[in-house]
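Figure 6 in text form: structure in, sequence out.
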């Protein structure tokens, strides 16, 4: 019988802590947890706790404020290309919606990524593992794409080590430089 009381106190303390947090969440994430420790201590010691907002008040349970990194408007990518040769090597910034940046053709680069963006599919996903790839070598060029696209973080690497990787690279031309051999 002596173990029922501590369990009941624990349940009441947990319930009160949740009530305090929910009731105070309208004041923002910093103060949402203020007073929670005091409320739990008071409940476990048998002291009465006064809620932060009276029952029946119209306090809103608003979501937390938007973080600064989520306020970025438009999509932004940083493309670093190495070993492609000539003016293709370097680091380029691409801002889309509206299109601008240091990329040689920011407008076409944005349209290319837009064209490859599908709901539920990552436009920068790696080549599927276990796929059958031709043993073609497309050269030593590598690329690293970072930033945000469609509200999601991007951190993708590209190379031209086999047919699957070459196809993946070519899907993003002109975001990535066009290294396909010239046709006669």
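Output sequence:
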């Amino acid at each position: 019988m002596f173990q029922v009381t501590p369990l009941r106190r624990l349940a009441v303390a947990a319930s009160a802590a949740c009530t305090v947090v929910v009731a105070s969440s309208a004041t923002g994430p910093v103060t949402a947890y203020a007073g929670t420790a005091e409320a739990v201590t008071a409940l476990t010691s048998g002291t009465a706790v006064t809620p932060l907002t009276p029952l029946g008040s119209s306090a809103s349970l608003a979501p937390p404020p938007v973080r600064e990194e989520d306020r970025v408007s438009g999509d932004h990518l940083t493309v670093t290309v190495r070993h492609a040769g000539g003016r293709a090597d370097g680091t380029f910034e691409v801002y889309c919606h509206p299109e601008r940046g240091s990329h040689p053709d920011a407008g076409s680069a944005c349209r290319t990524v837009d064209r490859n963006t599908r709901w539920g599919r990552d436009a920068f996903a790696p080549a599927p593992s276990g796929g059958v790839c031709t043993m073609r070598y497309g050269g030593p060029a590598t690329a690293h794409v970072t930033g945000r696209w469609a509200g999601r973080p991007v951190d993708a690497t590209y190379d031209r080590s086999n047919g699957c990787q070459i196809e993946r690279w070519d899907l993003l031309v002109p975001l990535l430089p066009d290294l396909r051999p010239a046709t006669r």
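Caption detail: The chain is about 30% helix and 20% strand.
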